[in-house]
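Re: Re: token formats

Sure, here are both.
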Amino acid sequence: MGCGVVFKLDPTGYETALYNFTGGSDGGYPQAGLILDAAGNLYGTTAYGGDLNCEAPYGCGVVFMWDKKETKEIVLHAFSGAPDGLYPLGGLIRDDEGNLYGTTSGGGSANVGVIFRLDSSGNETILHSFAGAPSDGAFPTLTSLLGSGGALYGVTQEGGTSNAGVVYKLSKAGTGARLTVLHSFALGYADGQYPWGTPIMDKGGSLYGTAYMGGSAANGIVWRVSPSGKETVLHNFYGYPADGAQPNAGVITDGKGNLYGTTAEGGTNGEGTVYELNSEGSVTLLHSFLSSSDGGYPKDGLIFDPAGNLYGTTYEGGSYDYGTVFELTP
């Protein structure tokens, strides 16, 4: 059908397609990862499909659940376009009460995206409609981070004072939610531009993430933003061949102050990297991709297993040049 799948990969690398999207009312072209509940049900979004009568020609996208017990997909919400959202390019987060939170890259009052909540019955609430530059963010592309006190944190690809993206906090993720821009990225070489990926938070409340462009070599940065909104550039990427370039995803941490992530380009072969950024600010390239053999151009983030192995995906490469799932050992 060619509209995307939900798949399972066992420890031996054997893949099972759990669901094939049709691009119709069930959704199509999922762009982000999934989350899991205690019963083994999966939740995610598709960028297209759903309500085919909405303002977008191929549908405005859906939030779905894959029911483990019934082994079927259930559409929890089909977006309809402004004033609702459209094009949910990111994944979801789930709170202890079963509410789902996410973003869309379009729709809302200014058609530059929304933050939404779905309760356990599938009822949607728009928590914030982005207004765009200069006062607000625009085009949130990935899911937010649920922090203490029910606050949501995230980034937008554009918007802010220089229209180069923002880091935001949405206090009280419910009725009366209020958005605060913690940092607006600046044009030029001193700061990053166009942040992507889900930020992470340390025990002190500082946020960490990446920006796709900008920095001293215009190849992107890794950043930290304090709870008060003070930004520190932790690393400037320098591209091929010595370093990565264009980080498309956020970072993860090993709990010791070291950060790990991927870049979509750069590295020894120019086809992307996996990197480690230590607490002193030094970057080590753990792997440079060569698409003909092991994949190329990783555009998503990483996860750890208990043994310290890293897992991720690449956009291209592998045996059929459609991408790979990879494991990187310590």
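Second one below.
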Amino acid sequence: MAITLQQFGIDKLSSAERLELIEKIWDSLSEQVAPAEVPEWHLPILAERRAQDEAHPGEGKPWHEVFARLKSHS
């Protein structure tokens, strides 16, 4: 079964709402994806990103904060 944007009303969401939905879906994956489901080739990339996060904690921003800042400048 192919999922469409229209089927769930996603096509009617604003850009900000779509980004928020993406963030919520992304965050939910870490709670539900088992380590065995992660492809082997992802592991080095994840390790590199984890090392970057540990070396520079708190530098990243959630999408909704970035989008709000960009929206306030327009």
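The mean pLDDT is 84. Residues 10-72 form one domain.
- S.
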